[in-house]
């Protein structure tokens, strides 16, 4: 089986071949930690996670780096408005970002470099570009990348640089227009930058790095001159990634990235998410409203990453139902009373086929929507077989359960649902009530009711342990 990915640079699906056999080096543009991450960001971060998990599932050794942007125009402005330094301002957002990742089951990656920790390497990188004639310092104290010095500029986005005005400059980190202009690698410190602690010494005086430069430096520093995959949201194609290519290829003399992948932006209630529309939803808020993190995860991976995805609370509720169906299915299988003299069932065949189908669907450009279809089709078929057969052998049951768990190492839905249920207060008070009712039933010798309660709990993966001290309970996988 071969993995195919849609490479933004080639504008087509390509067979994935890493630089070194069996190893994949991935760099993903992480959050700018000036505020809490929103659900759009998490559509992108969950895609990163699917890539990470599927590559490992496919047997690759994966080195995965995701940066946290802790100094850029937005961070400085936000710190200034809050009357703090960038360090103080970004710390809590960095922490909650990582906590949200844990809630939604985003695997930890190998490294989370922060720009402010690598200023020295950034200065050295710029010096290399200046020495090679790709950058120049200007009278405003900034250092600019000369795009005229890199004829391939524009190749990622496919923009025409023939109308280029030599020496025209743009200082902002972000700009919408497909403007081929010299961009800042280093910016002279303003009073505001000094106030918020966003200024460092350099051969060009006090200043700070440009946002695009940060990613070029941290990615090549940690992963080498050529990366296998570079991921981000679709808004990053231009100018961010175009500029990263220019900087990196000019500094190292090697191709920067083999496969570029970009995630389409999330819509909310049919519209682009924006503060002015008031549909700007943070992951934190949904968790605080009590939504199941597994449902959020399900919804955000339920559409192919290059396809449209519209977030609605109704959709989130439907995802909650889907997750519950999966939980019920897992509970049914794991609680199943098996019989070793049971006649042959269709389970081994279904289990073998579903894993193959799942793999090939994910290999088709990380088609998570299709993979969920494969998974839920399996749930339906196995449930029907169990209804028809009544009893199956332990080994048949284990094969079905194994297939389910194998797919979940990539999708992470049961994993998140089970982890979140451990800490759910409502659930725990419900369990306590059930335990008490069971104790009363037993005291009045109503053992049928007592057993019923135990079963009801076990369907929710809750196991009771009776001891001299009373009844303990725990959530099991
Ligand atoms: P930022 O924190 O703005 O630097 O964004 C972090 C990541 O989230 C980047 O890869 C962005 O491209 C991505 N992103 C931002 N907005 C959205 C959105 N509405 N939908 C999907 N991804 C987004
Ligand atoms: Zn970046």
Distance between the termini: 30 Å
Basic shape? elongated
The count of helical stretches stands at 16
Q: Main β-sheet, in a few words?
A: 5 strands, mixed
Number of strands: 16
Strand content: 5-15%
Q: What is the mean pLDDT?
A: 93
Classified by CATH, the class of the largest domain is: Alpha Beta
Helix content: 40-55%
Q: What Rg, in angstroms, do the CA atoms define?
A: 26 Å
Classification by helices and strands: alpha/beta
Q: What is the H level of CATH, i.e. the homologous superfamily of the largest domain?
A: HUPs
The name CATH uses for the topology of the largest domain is Rossmann fold
Parts with pLDDT < 50 across at least 5 consecutive residues: none
Please give the CATH architecture of the largest domain. 3-Layer(aba) Sandwich
Distinct small molecules:
adenosine monophosphate, zinc ion
Total of domains:
3
Protein architecture, described:
- The chain is an alpha/beta fold.
- The protein has 3 domains: 19-271, 3-Layer(aba) Sandwich (Rossmann fold), CATH 3.40.50.620; 291-419, Isoleucyl-tRNA Synthetase, Domain 1, CATH 1.10.730; 425-475, no CATH class.
- The chain is built from 16 helices and 16 strands.
- The chain has helices at 39-57, 73-82, 86-103, 119-131, 191-195, 211-223, 237-252, 283-288, 293-301, 313-335, 347-363, 368-389, 394-411, 413-422, 425-443, 447-459, and strands at residues 4-7, 12-15, 23-28, 61-66, 135-137, 143-145, 169-170, 182-188, 207-209, 227-233, 257-263, 267-268, 271-272, 310-311, 462-467, 470-475.
- Strands 5, 6, 7, 8 and 9 form a 5-stranded mixed beta sheet that branches. Strands 4-3-10-11 form a 4-stranded parallel beta sheet, with helices on both faces.
- Helix 9 packs antiparallel against helix 14 and helix 11 (347-363) packs parallel to helix 13 (394-411).
- The chain is elongated.
- 43% of the residues are buried.
